[in-house]
Write a structure and sequence with these properties.
- The protein has about 575 residues and is an alpha/beta fold.
- The protein folds into 3 domains: about 25-185, Rossmann fold; about 210-370, Rossmann fold, CATH 3.40.50.1220; about 380-560, Rossmann fold (3-Layer(aba) Sandwich), CATH 3.40.50.970.
- It is about 35% helix and about 15% strand.
- The strands form 3 sheets. A 6-stranded parallel sheet has the order 2-1-3-4-6-5, with helices on both faces. Strands 9-8-7-10-11-12 form a 6-stranded parallel sheet, with helices on both faces.
- Helix 3 crosses helix 18 (about 435-445) and helix 9 packs across helix 14.
- About 55% of the residues are buried.
């Protein structure tokens, strides 16, 4: 298999130029990005950011030309999730900037550090409804951690440094820098003063008395359960989580965004919690007497009806670095503001070792009583496709799931033991996320294999980014679970809306193998289970991007599932043999 370089200059660029001392605002901006360790950006040039692109070839930054600005934001997001570094996207003003909003919301809600650079009309024309003007600051207020609009080119270095600091510290998130065209073009002298960078103070360690109280509750528990979210991955706390769980003999469930932070399979692993979680995880949470939630928001997809969430728990401990998340939905009698790794390590050092054979046997009984099942009706089932794919996973492979049934099938079937290798859009549930995010992840991890799991509905929303993958020589593999419909919406209509199927069928879908080849990818369609493995092997062996369409059972659903308005214990299991 041929390999692709991590950096390849654009085909149209001139021979490499020396980096020259910054003179214009655009050059200062690019120099500041290099100073922050930026090696890749994702974007599209346009009228209001052309000064940046004029000087971009002078700097050691790889630019990946996307086909839609939403794709740029998702690529920056995927890059950040795969690398742990800040992802950067660039757009012009007006529609270009506004096209970033969905991707910024996706990153921000999932605590992903992304910095967006948007061109803006010249400062004197702001507020006059100038051509391609938009109030991108106002539009992004609810989906960014902080926003800046530069009016003085002398502030560029300060603002870039502060923006990156804000994006990656505390609870990570999205930050926007809006740069009017005249600020990009303005010239600065070499004697410009250095500006003082404002730093947000790091959160103080959690008070010792809170750690002692939580450790006491956990040590005395008869039926402890731990629920872990993406904050565990962000903090690099997987080892501390495993140590604490093993010491307590406490089973561990994960949120959708926490998939992979606890090894699966593992004797203490409960899999996914919540609306589409495993039956045995939901039963354990319902029956526990002490619940520790760490690095998670406790949103409605986790809790379902609140009065049925951990109703028998004498104590609920909630650990989050963002104090705004504590008590927002679940009232915890032991809320702890702190870094997940620090808190888990301190708890593991204080709890007494315990063996809880009765609780373990009860949980194992629920495993036997509520196994994950799917139909066996002669049609290709998504679980069969994913089982064949996961059997071919290597430890460093990255899986990026889209949104819908494909996402839940992929999450519940996840077999990895490593943190941060299963990526998906959780808080926003953004269809179309997987392909561009996989491109960004591949750019961040050129030595890893990256796979996007999609439904046909989500893929067509951003399918144009196949061209980006081919052009940038990023060999992502796209696995389409095609049921010819909006599958999750169809299941909701069947189960919760009287069985009235309305506007969910895709009577016209692309011929995906032909479409893939039109973009320059490898393409193949699979209808039969016997061909799943060989097709995967051919796609994986192909040196460039590849698209496999698996034509699955159109009636396949996700089970277990909690009825709308139900409690965790009221989940419905697969009704088919």
């Amino acid at each position: 298999m041929s390999t692709f370089p991590a950096f390849r200059p654009d085909r149209q660029s001139q021979p490499e130029l020396e980096v020259v001392p910054a003179r214009s605002g655009a050059e200062v901006l690019l120099s500041a990005l290099v100073g922050q360790g930026v090696d890749s950006v994702f974007g599209i040039p346009g009228g209001a950011n052309l000064p940046i692109y004029r000087h971009l070839p002078q700097f050691p930054i790889r630019h990946i030309l996307v086909r839609h600005e939403q794709g740029a934001a998702h690529m920056a997001d995927g890059y950040a999730r795969a690398s742990g570094r800040v992802g950067v996207c660039i757009a012009t003003s007006g529609p270009g900037a506004l096209n970033l909003v969905t991707g910024l919301a996706t990153a921000h809600f999932d605590s992903v550090p992304v910095v967006a650079l948007t061109g803006q009309v010249a400062s004197p024309t702001i507020g006059t409804d100038a051509f391609q003007e938009s109030d991108v600051i106002g539009s992004c207020l609810s989906v960014t951690k902080h926003s800046y609009q530069l009016r003085d080119p002398g502030e560029i270095e300060e603002v870039v440094a502060e923006a990156f600091h804000v994006a990656r510290t505390g609870r990570p998130g999205a930050v926007l820098i809006d740069i009017p065209k005249d600020v990009q073009q303005a010239h600065l002298g070499d004697d410009r003063p250095l500006r003082r960078i404002r730093r947000h103070a790091a959160p103080a360690p959690a008070p010792e008395q809170q750690i002692e109280a939580a450790a006491g509750y956990l040590s005395r528990a008869r039926r402890p359960v731990i629920l872990a979210g993406r904050g565990v991955a962000i903090a690099g706390a997987q080892g501390a989580l495993i140590k604490l769980a093993s010491k307590l003999d406490a089973p561990v469930g994960t949120t959708l965004l926490g998939t992979g932070v606890f090894p699966n399979p593992h004797p203490l692993g409960l899999g996914l919690v919540g609306f589409m979680g495993t039956g045995y995880c939901n039963r354990a949470v319902t029956d526990c007497d002490v619940l520790l939630m760490v690095g998670m928001r406790a949103d409605d997809r986790v809790t379902c009806r609140l009065d049925g969430f951990a109703p028998r728990a004498d104590h609920i401990i909630h650990v989050n670095i963002d104090p705004a998340e504590l008590g927002k939905t679940v009232a915890a009698d032991c809320p702890i503001v702190g870094d997940a790794r620090d808190v888990l390590e301190r708890l593991a050092g204080q709890v007494g070792p315990g063996s809880r054979p009765d609780w373990r046997e009860q949980v194992d009984g629920w495993r036997r009583q509520h196994p994950l099942r799917h139909p066996h009706n002669g049609r290709l089932q998504p679980q069969e496709v994913l089982r064949a794919y996961y059997a071919r996973r290597r430890p460093a492979d990255i899986t990026v799931a889209d949104v819908g049934l494909n996402q839940m099938w992929a999450a519940t079937g996840w077999s990895g033991g490593e943190s941060g290798l299963f990526l998906n859009s959780g808080g926003q549930g953004t269809m179309g996320f997987a392909l561009p995010a996989a491109v960004g992840a591949q750019a961040a991890a050129p030595k890893s294999r990256v796979f996007a799991i999609c439904g046909e509905g989500g893929l067509v929303m951003t399918v144009q980014e196949l061209a980006t993958a081919v052009e940038a020589e990023l060999p992502v593999k796209v696995l389409i679970l095609n049921n010819r419909q909006l599958g999750m919406v169809r299941q909701f209509q069947d189960d919760f809306y009287g069985g009235v199927r309305s506007q969910v069928d895709h009577t016209v879908t692309p011929d995906f193998p032909t479409l893939a080849r039109a973009f320059g990818c490898y393409g193949e369609a699979v209808d039969d289970l016997a061909e799943v493995g060989p097709a995967l092997d051919r796609a994986i062996a192909h040196p460039g991007p590849a698209v496999l369409e698996f034509r699955i059972d159109p009636e396949a659903g996700i089970f277990p599932i909690v009825p709308l308005g139900g409690t965790l214990s009221e989940f419905v299991e697969c009704p088919y043999p």
